[in-house]
């Protein structure tokens, strides 16, 4: 028997529970971060459906809804995409690249680049300031122990 119940904008049945704002983006990012490689919107949709089994019924998302969400995440700079045939596969941007992009954006929108950089540097811990100095001196990638400390994983 076919389900003729009305659907909402997410492509799920009107009677199904609605996700909180941003929850679907978070779920999709989580799936892509756990993947061993790039995923197509169809593969993301399949994994979302598999993850929802056993949870509160939310209805299956339409393919176009997943395409819309991954496209929005790409536009926000949270995903990269590669053309595969007529479509795309998506990969999450790593956290370090995302933070660096946000910093470049902040520098690009500031009226006084010197003031922005000065305030950023003055807020660094001593350890992070030394790490930044080594990087600026051209010492290349910091040793793993320094990276771990800078990222709070001591």
Q: What is the terminal separation in angstroms? A: 58 Å
What is the count of β-strands? 2
Which stretches are low in confidence, meaning pLDDT under 50 for 5 or more residues running?
1-15
Helix content bin: 40-55%
How can the largest sheet be summarized? 2 strands, antiparallel
Strand order of the biggest β-sheet: 1-2
Strand content: 5-15%
* Quaternary structure: single chain
Count of individual helical segments: 7
Structural class: mainly alpha
Shape category: elongated
Any idea what the radius of gyration is? 21 Å
Averaged pLDDT, please? 80
Describe this structure in words.
This protein is mostly helical and 154 residues long. The protein has seven helices and two strands; from the N terminus they run αααββαααα. Helix 2 (41-52) packs across helix 3 (63-75).
């Amino acid at each position: 028997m076919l389900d003729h119940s009305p659907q909402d904008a997410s492509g799920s049945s009107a009677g199904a529970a609605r996700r909180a704002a941003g929850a679907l983006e978070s779920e999709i990012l989580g799936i892509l971060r756990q993947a061993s490689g790039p995923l197509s919107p169809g593969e993301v949709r399949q994994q979302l459906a598999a993850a929802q089994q056993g949870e509160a019924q939310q209805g299956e998302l339409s393919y176009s809804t997943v395409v819309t969400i991954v496209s929005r995440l790409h536009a926000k700079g949270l995903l990269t995409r590669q053309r595969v045939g007529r479509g795309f596969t998506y990969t999450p941007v790593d956290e370090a690249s995302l933070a660096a992009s946000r910093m470049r954006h902040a520098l690009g929108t500031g009226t006084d680049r010197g003031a922005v950089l000065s305030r950023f540097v003055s807020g660094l811990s001593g350890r992070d300031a030394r790490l930044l100095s080594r990087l600026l001196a051209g010492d290349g990638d910091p040793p793993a122990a320094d990276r771990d400390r800078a990222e709070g994983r001591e």
